[in-house]
């Protein structure tokens, strides 16, 4: 079984993430997508983060109706900040019968050469890349790389930052989230201040 790992902070998960996950699983050889909720991205400050379990709950609510998309809390028990190379080693060891690939936007591909042991990641895993509008250039070593496959997924210009800021400013952000996710955020008063 081939699993696509879609890593993210998901603070909160929005329809942009879901569109990508669904597109990838329906238009590639991947059997499932696991949305891996990251406690602490080594490149981001942790301060404005909703608790891990709340972010996981939101991913659970967003993906409940999708058979091939599943939430994962595998990084919760691993040392922080979360280096993807360590998570991949751990998960591959846990599920020896499965093949794990990475799903990544072009924005993340632009910084991949700065990730811890990125050569090891590429040695053991395929990366499926979808287009994203972002500044900067992709390192030329990743051009036509045998382990990197580009997938022509739609571009959706939504970010979690946009949603958090909108909620704080009392704007209606409902169309950018699933109903279940919006209801939970609203009930719990998340992101209001
Ligand atoms: N609209 C989108 N379309 C496609 N990919 C996205 C979109 N938003 C985020 N991603 C990608 O999904 C992964 C997880 O996203 P992340 O949790 O960082 O969301 P974000 O919206 O970029 O968050 P933030 O605004 O808080 O930085 C990252 O690899 C990110 O590049
Ligand atoms: O391993 C690394 O060096 C590394 C550097 C930057 C980001 N990552 C991972 O990339 C994933 C995407 O993060 P984010 O915050 O953009 O959603 C998340 O799981 C991070 O831990 C990993």
Q: CATH class, anyone?
A: Alpha Beta
What would the CATH topology be? Answer: Rossmann fold
Query: What is the CA–CA distance across the termini?
Result: 43 Å
- Mean pLDDT rating: 95
CATH architecture: 3-Layer(aba) Sandwich
Residue stretches low in confidence (pLDDT < 50, at least 5 long) are none
Supply the number of helical segments: 7
Shape: globular
The hetero molecules present are: adenosine-5'-triphosphate, nicotinate mononucleotide
Rg from C-alpha positions? 16 Å
Give a short account of the largest sheet: 6 strands, parallel
Instruction: Supply the CATH superfamily name.
Output: HUPs
% residues in beta strands: 15-25%
Element order: H for helix, E for strand:
EHEHEHEHHEEHH
Keywords: ATP-binding, NAD, Nucleotide-binding, Nucleotidyltransferase, Pyridine nucleotide biosynthesis, Transferase
Protein name: Probable nicotinate-nucleotide adenylyltransferase
GO molecular function: nicotinate-nucleotide adenylyltransferase activity
Domain Cytidyltransferase-like: 5-165
């Amino acid at each position: 079984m081939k699993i696509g790992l879609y890593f993210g902070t998901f603070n909160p998960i929005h329809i942009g993430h879901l569109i990508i996950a669904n597109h990838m699983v329906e238009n590639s050889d991947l059997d499932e997508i696991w949305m891996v909720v990251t406690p602490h991205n080594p490149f981001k400050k942790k301060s404005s983060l909703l608790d891990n379990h709340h972010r996981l709950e939101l991913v659970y609510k967003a993906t409940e109706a999708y058979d091939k998309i599943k939430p994962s809390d595998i990084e919760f028990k691993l040392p922080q900040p979360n280096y993807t190379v360590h998570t991949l080693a751990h998960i591959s060891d846990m599920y020896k019968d499965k093949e794990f690939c990475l799903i990544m936007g072009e924005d993340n591909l632009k910084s991949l050469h700065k990730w811890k042991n990125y050569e090891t990641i590429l040695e053991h895993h395929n990366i499926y890349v979808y287009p994203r509008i972002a500044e900067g250039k992709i390192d030329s070593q990743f051009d036509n790389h045998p382990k990197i496959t580009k997938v022509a997924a739609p571009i959706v210009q939504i970010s979690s930052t946009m949603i958090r800021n909108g909620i704080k400013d009392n704007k209606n952000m409902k169309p950018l989230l699933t109903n279940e996710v919006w209801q939970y955020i609203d009930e719990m008063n998340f992101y209001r201040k």
